[in-house]
Amino acid sequence: MAHHPHEPRDDRRTPGRGHAPGAKHGDGQGHSHSHGHGHDTDIDWAEMAPHLEAQAELFTPLYERALSWLGREVTEPGLIVDVGSGPGVVSCLFAETFSGARVTAVDGSAPLLERARQRADRLGYGDRFDTLTGELPDVLAELDYPADLLWAGRSLHHLGDQRAALAAFAERLAPGGTLAIMEGGLPPRFLPRDLGFGRPGLEARLDALQEEWFARMRADLLGCVEEAEDWAALLGAAGLKHARTRSFLLDLPAPASDRARAYVAASLSRLRDVFGDVLGSDDRAMLDRLLDPQDEAGVHRRADVFVLAAHTVHTAVKPVQ
Q1: CA atoms within 13 A on the CB side of 108
Q2: What is the per-residue pLDDT across 201-215, written as a single tens digit (0 to 9) for each?
Q3: DSSP SS3 for 101
Q4: DSSP class of residue 83?
Q5: Can you state the percent helix, strand and coil of the chain, rounding each to 5?
Q6: Whether the model pTM is above 0.85
């Protein structure tokens, strides 16, 4: 299963209500799906907005490298569509990187798209920035014209039938247009394996719980279809050619900045909330110490806190007829 550690999708977003009845919909970039509650795979994306924005802003160097890589082959796009844009941090990076492009942020959450619109206006991109609210992938039929670049950053896995979704994404590309999906990579790391207290390997044990949560989240999606995560093959099945894959690293070494520490603390706090009832008492106690602002061994104070993560981007091109 793909890694989506401590994140809600990354910086992002909301594909639409692909979840089971009652689930709030759907960022960010990013994946640990530590944004649920307990065993529930419900995600309230509007509530997640501040965390989604903070994560995407912290991960901006990674996204900038990914967009620079895309820009070497996607030259002068007219329309860029950010599928599952969430609060629009990455959408606005596209507007900055591709200064001649129009950018459309697409999401199932109107509150997140309002934040995206406000961000674009604040940064001076409002005159070439649009939003589109609705269920993915069907809402893409409402685009005024085909996209030259369609980006789905850690949002595809929130749609039940990923193969069908990729086919729908490909259909909305202009001939010669590029589909880029960010899926997979490595789970983030914030701390040494041995913290000096408790049992070593806490983050690896949290990874295992998140993988189980991710599997439940996928199973709860409406129309869920199990699919091997061979993204190049799936892009080919959607009729696209010239598949490429590259991973991008975020390396924020110790000692962490205040912003990085706040992100680490928020991520671990969310994991504590989600998995507190299934964690062993020793691991709960470790998290409690790590999250205590007064504890010298906690993430607010210890000198060895860092952020290290890798996200993978897969691209393919729609043939020119």
Answers
A1: 23
A2: 999 999 999 999 999
A3: coil
A4: E
A5: 40, 20, 40
A6: yes
Across residues 306-311, what is the average pLDDT? 98
User: Which one-letter amino acid corresponds to residue 238?
Assistant: A
The neighbouring-strand residues paired with 81 are: 104, 150
Asked if 140 and 15 count as a contact pair (C-beta separation under 8 A), the reply is no
Tens-place pLDDT, residues 115-131 = 999 999 999 999 999 99
- Which residues lie closer than 8 Å to 8 by C-beta, 6 or more apart? 27, 28, 30, 31, 33, 34, 35, 43, 45, 48, 51, 52, 55
Is the backbone peptide bond immediately before 137 cis, with ω within 30 degrees of 0? yes
Q: What is the predicted pLDDT for the residue at 81?
A: 98
Q: Which tops the pLDDT comparison, 248 or 47? A: 248
> CA–CA separation, 117 vs 140, rounded Å?
18
Pick the closest to residue 180 from 232, 132, 134 (CA basis): 232
* Residue 148 parent element (H or E): strand 147-153
Is 242 in contact with 280 (CB distance < 8 Å)? no
Residue 95, amino acid: A
β-bridge mates for residue 150, sequence order: 81, 179
* Residue 271, token pair as written in the block: 């994991």
Band of pLDDT at residue 257, cut at 50, 70 and 90? very high
Element (H, E) at 93: helix 89-97
Cβ-proximal residues to 226 (8 Å cutoff; 6+ apart), any chain: none
Question: Which DSSP letter does residue 37 get?
Answer: B
What does the pLDDT average to over 281-310?
97
Distance CA 221, CA 191 (A): 33
Strand bridging mode 79-83 / 102-107: parallel
Please list, in sequence order, all residues whose beta carbon lies within 8 angstroms of the beta carbon of residue 319, skipping any fewer than 6 positions away. 175, 176, 239, 240, 241
